[in-house]
């Protein structure tokens, strides 16, 4: 990763919630990096060194699931990742993180991050709510993996991508994913997701242009997510 100052001390989850006076301390402790597209920032099993915030770009947070890869979530500008390694019983990251494009990152070492939580109560409170939301989403994902068809899980994945990343100027999802990454986020084999994607195209629910995905009929996609 290439070093270089890049963040504005305003945009990320931490900087937007800490005491104004604490930003001077953040500025002296932060380490900024630029990760290339496809570069692994850390891997599952690495010792926990700290947490990261995305300033610009996108990161996939993923882990091994049997002999496959499962994308747990995506981190886009302002979001935190690496926090899943924090805890009293673990000293290793349980997930990996990889840049989906050239991405500007801010790294905060573990000791200073813990001090930040102790001093900045609003940040600690909001991070607790963030953990609670993540836990709910993880539980939903496990339920979906157990009970939903691949086609329904694919519909869930597409709607989640729209909610997080929005649409670009042409109406497509504002993130470009490889078909392998879409399969890993859906939690299914590439071949099955490819077949289900073709079905959604033939049913005129979505359209494809290279890596860009356009949602044509959101109502019918949402209907698919109601399967149980």
TrEMBL record:
It comes from the Bacteria. The keyword DNA repair does not apply. The keyword Glycosyltransferase does not apply. Residues 148-219 form the HTH crp-type domain. Keywords: DNA-binding, Transcription, Transcription regulation. GO terms for molecular function: DNA binding; DNA-binding transcription factor activity. One of its GO terms (cellular component) is cytosol. Residues 13-117 form the Cyclic nucleotide-binding domain. Gene3D superfamilies: Jelly Rolls, Winged helix-like DNA-binding domain superfamily/Winged helix DNA-binding domain. This is Crp/Fnr family transcriptional regulator. It comes from Pedobacter hiemivivus. The lineage of its organism: Bacteria, Pseudomonadati, Bacteroidota, Sphingobacteriia, Sphingobacteriales.
């Amino acid at each position: 990763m290439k070093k270089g100052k890049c963040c504005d001390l305003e945009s990320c989850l931490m900087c937007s919630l800490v005491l104004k006076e604490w930003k001077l301390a953040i500025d002296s402790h932060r380490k900024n990096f630029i990760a290339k597209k496809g570069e692994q920032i850390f891997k599952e099993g690495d010792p926990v060194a700290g947490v990261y915030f995305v300033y610009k770009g996108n990161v996939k947070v993923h882990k091994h699931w049997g002999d496959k890869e499962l994308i747990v979530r995506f981190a886009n500008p302002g979001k935190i990742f690496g926090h899943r390694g924090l805890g009293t019983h673990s000293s290793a990251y349980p997930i990996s993180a990889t840049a989906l494009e050239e991405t500007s990152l801010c790294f905060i070492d573990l000791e200073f991050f813990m001090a930040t939580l102790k001093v900045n109560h609003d940040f600690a409170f909001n991070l607790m709510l963030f953990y609670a939301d993540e836990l709910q989403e993880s539980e939903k994902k496990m339920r979906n993996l157990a009970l939903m068809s691949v086609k329904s899980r694919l519909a869930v994945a597409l709607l989640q991508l729209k909610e997080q990343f929005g649409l670009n100027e042409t109406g497509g999802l504002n993130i470009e994913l490889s078909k392998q990454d879409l399969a890993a986020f859906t939690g299914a084999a590439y071949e099955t997701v490819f077949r289900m994607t073709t079905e959604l195209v033939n049913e005129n629910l979505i359209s494809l242009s290279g890596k860009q995905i356009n949602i044509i009929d959101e109502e019918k996609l949402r209907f698919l997510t109601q399967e149980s």
